[in-house]
Amino acid sequence: MKTNEIYQAVTDRIITLLEQGVAPWRKSWSSVGFHAPRNGVTKREYSGVNLYLSFYGYTSPDFFSFKQIKEAGARIKKGEQGKMILFWRRITITDPASGEEKEIPMLRYYTAWNREQCEGLPEPTDLPPAPKNPNEQIKACEELLAEYKDMPRVTNGTQALYRPSTDEIQIPPLATFDCSEEYYSALFHEGIHSTGSAGRLNRKQGGRFGDAAYALEELVAE
Q1: N or C: which end of the chain has fewer CB atoms below 10 A?
Q2: Are residues 156 and 83 in the same domain?
Q3: Cα 27 from chain centre
Q4: Residues 100 and 155 in one domain
Q5: Per-residue pLDDT, 207
Q6: Residue 150 phi, psi dihedral angles, 5° rounding
Q7: How many CB atoms sit inside 10 A of residue 24's CB?
Q8: pLDDT along the chain (222 residues), means of 10
Q9: Predicted local distance difference test score (pLDDT) of residue 74
Q10: How far is CA 8 from the centre of its chain?
């Protein structure tokens, strides 16, 4: 894969996440506190464009190559797709004009999987547990939600999003939010997105990040 193709592949993945409602700047909950994505074995943190890995919303910052997973006696969960890790490698070439050898940087990549995409990996011992805030349900909010007669199924996850393909709202647990109000703000936002599905109000959804349809849908939800 050529350098421009590698960058395009990462850009496409980021845009896809944004289109799914995964915006890293709109996050009012915690997992294990912010920790930059890193190699799960060496603990070396990724940098540069590789910080896009945090957009996926995994609670674990650890990523492993296929070789590292195999050496640990673990395995990748069925259906899980790896993520691209970019790095620069210096290679020696011969200048066709002068015949002299020189080193140049060459962009390369490998595929890695997050700890949550695997089974059988040992648990990390150097990360604090996920915070559990003493949040409580807000009665008025719960009563309002109860009025949504055809409300999609709500499941816990590491992201706040509405998935039209399964008509499902995913949201982190109440205790992981900064406060109860932030939890309901996120839940209502995704709930409004769900009202635009084909079986409800049938709004024009599925636009690309930045276009008019996408912007209008976000304004409706807000």
Answers
A1: C
A2: no
A3: 11
A4: no
A5: 65
A6: -115, 35
A7: 14
A8: 74 70 59 72 89 78 95 94 89 84 86 94 79 88 94 83 86 87 93 91 74 80 84
A9: 96
A10: 18
Task: Name residue, tokens 């349900």.
Answer: 137
Give the Cα separation of 157 and 143 in Å (integer). Answer: 23
Whether residue 21 lies inside any domain: the answer is no
Domain count along the chain: 2
12 domain residue, yes or no: no
In terms of domains, do 108 and 177 share one?
no
Cβ 17 vs Cβ 54: under 8 Å: no
> How is residue 45 annotated by DSSP?
B
Q: What are phi and psi of 219, to 5 degrees?
A: -65, -40
Last residue of a domain, one of 119, 148, 163: 119
Determine phi and psi for 171, rounding to 5 degrees. Answer: -150, 140
* DSSP SS3 for 157: coil
Let me know if 84 is exposed, middle or buried by CB neighbors in 10 A (0-12, 13-18, 19+).
Answer: middle
Examine residue 189 and state whether it is found in any structural domain, yes or no.
Answer: yes
The CA distance from 159 to 111, in Å, is 22
What pLDDT is stored for residue 33 in this prediction?
A: 47
Q: Which residues pair with 154 in a beta bridge?
A: 169
The Cα–Cα gap between 134 and 183 comes to 12
Structural domain range at position 42: 31-119
Per-residue model confidence as pLDDT tens digits over 139-193: 999 999 999 999 999 988 767 888 888 899 988 888 888 889 999 999 999 999 9
